C-alpha cells in the first residue's frame, strides 16, 4: 500500500500540522511515506527536505521527481 500525502497549496505551518497528524495516524508497521509538495515555488520542497522533523522520521530520500520526497519512518 502506498502512503502518500499531498500538501500542495499549503503554507509551511499548515504542512507541518498535516504531516504531523498524518504520520501520527499511521500504523507503526508503515515504514515510508511519499510527500507530494510540488516544485514550482520551492518553499514546500525546501521545508520538507531541509526543515521538517518528526520523531518517527528516520531519513529523507530525494526522488527523480522534484515535486516529491520520500520520508523513511522508524
UniProtKB/TrEMBL annotation:
<dbReference type="InterPro" id="IPR002625">
    <property type="entry name" value="Smr_dom"/>
</dbReference>
<dbReference type="Pfam" id="PF01713">
    <property type="entry name" value="Smr"/>
</dbReference>
<feature type="domain" description="Smr">
    <location>
        <begin position="5"/>
        <end position="56"/>
    </location>
</feature>
<dbReference type="InterPro" id="IPR036063">
    <property type="entry name" value="Smr_dom_sf"/>
</dbReference>
<protein>
    <submittedName>
        <fullName>Smr/MutS family protein</fullName>
    </submittedName>
</protein>
Amino acid at each position: 500500500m502506498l502512503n502518500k500525502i499531498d500538501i500542495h497549496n499549503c503554507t509551511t505551518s499548515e504542512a507541518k500540522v498535516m504531516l504531523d497528524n498524518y504520520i501520527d495516524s499511521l500504523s507503526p508497521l508503515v515504514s515510508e511515506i511519499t510527500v507530494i509538495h510540488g516544485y514550482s515555488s520551492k518553499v514546500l520542497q525546501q521545508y520538507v527536505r531541509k526543515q521538517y522533523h518528526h520523531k518517527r522520521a528516520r531519513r529523507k530520500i530525494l526522488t527523480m521527481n522534484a515535486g516529491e520526497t520520500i520520508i523513511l519512518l522508524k
